[in-house]
Design brief:
With 403 residues, the protein is of the alpha/beta class. It is built from 15 helices and 13 strands.
């Protein structure tokens, strides 16, 4: 398909996701990822394919490759896009949008990348050591291979920089924030922003009081007032907030001190424990809600407990944020659990009738995009996550501004 295109890159330590969108129609041409970089099990998979030599349709392919890291993966992706005819030449790419996990309080919107932005991303790696360094490798590799093309950083934290200080500060000496940046930052901001805009599109207006629930292996909930984030469940790190697939969520900080003092645990082991060995996995033996639901239906009590804990915490945050917003006009569920686990949505919403919220059980079980009940005064939507599209839109803006 002819026309200017934007490339979206989400580079991680062992994987890289990519997508190509046509400007200005926001048409997805291809979306895929390379997983297990640096291993013999490295795989390349195209998730969706909408244009090319084979015509219009959906094609999924998977085959083994041995790609060492992000630096080697990006030229491979570009070569593939050229070979398959998605790109006639690299000149069709007019912008590249890079997902960057941490922008701290330096960025409240996407940033056109220059030397200063790269230095800031590098400096902020202390807050996201597993993400920002790899995000930066992707940026620098694209700069080298796509000279003169707008490179744009879209930060997970940016949407939440509208939070007032009484929600992002912790009850500790303010010098810890002033000198060390310790405060709530929030994450999944690109997803929460996309969902708020999509819900606005459905309604035909921006609701004054909205709560968006990004529920997946990593989960967060955000209170949005007049389109702006005013509070969110993740904090200084993505470990805070809800119980998640393998993350503990909010925990008494004295527990960490107990592990250090009494059990002589090392910080690295505690980090592994909180992020990889806790959450739903620690309760039910699996961090995958699909497995947990299946086991619970067959009588496994620990799986039933895990679902109760998850549903309770989601409802608790929604209720608390409804108080923050002084009411609720719109509730959104997104991401893997939010979009597909109707039984979680049903359990959560059953505890929210005090808000005048009611869902249509039939539509809910069919994962319909609008599951609002006939007598509900709160609109309830199920919106597929599409962070890539939001990144593409924000990355394309500097190019559009110059046209």
């Amino acid at each position: 398909m002819d026309g200017p295109k934007v490339l979206v890159i989400n580079a991680g330590s062992s994987s890289i996701k990519f997508a190509i969108y046509l400007i200005p129609a926001d048409s997805l041409l291809i979306k895929g990822h390379i997983d297990r970089l640096g291993s013999e099990q490295c795989t390349f998979k195209v998730d969706r394919f909408y244009a090319g030599p084979t015509g219009i349709g959906e094609v999924v392919e998977q085959q083994p490759f041995h790609l060492k890291d992000v630096k080697h993966a990006i030229p491979f992706i570009l070569d593939y896009l050229l070979k398959e005819g998605i790109l006639k030449s690299l000149d069709e790419i007019v912008a590249v949008g890079h997902r960057v996990v941490h922008g701290a309080d330096k960025y409240n919107s996407a940033a056109l990348i220059n030397a200063e932005v790269k230095q800031n991303i590098r400096h902020l790696s202390k807050y996201a050591p597993l993400h920002n360094p790899h995000n930066l490798v992707g940026i620098e590799r694209c700069e080298k291979l796509l000279k003169g093309v707008h490179q744009v950083a879209v930060f997970d934290t940016a949407f939440h920089q509208s939070m007032p200080n009484w929600t992002y500060l912790y009850g500790i000496d303010p010098d810890f924030y002033a000198e060390h940046g310790i405060r709530k930052y929030g994450f999944h901001g690109t997803s929460h922003k996309y969902c708020s805009l999509k819900a606005t599109e459905f309604l035909g207006f921006m609701p004054k009081r909205m709560i968006t629930c990004h529920l997946g292996n990593g989960s967060s909930i955000t209170a949005i007032k007049n389109g702006l984030s005013v509070d969110t469940s993740m904090g200084f790190t993505p470990t805070d907030g809800l119980i998640m697939g393998t993350r503990s969520g909010a925990i008494d900080p004295e527990v960490i001190l107990y592990l250090l003092r009494e059990l002589k645990q090392k910080p690295e082991k505690i980090d592994q424990f909180l992020n990889k060995e806790s959450g739903l996995k620690s309760i039910a033996g699996s961090g995958d809600v699909r497995d947990i639901w299946n086991n619970a239906r067959h009588g496994d009590q620990q799986s039933a407990l895990a679902l109760d804990m998850l549903s309770y915490e989601i409802a608790r945050y929604i209720g608390g944020y409804a108080a923050t917003l002084n009411g609720l006009d719109c509730l959104v569920f997104t991401a893997g659990i939010g979009e597909n686990a109707w039984y979680v949505r049903a359990a959560v919403c059953a505890n929210l009738s005090f808000l005048g919220l009611q869902i249509d059980e039939d539509k809910n079980q069919r994962n319909h995009h609008d599951i609002t009940g006939p007598d509900s005064i709160v609109k309830v939507f199920v919106i597929p996550a599409n962070e890539e599209l939001q990144i593409a839109r924000e990355a394309a803006q500097p190019w559009k501004d110059n046209q």
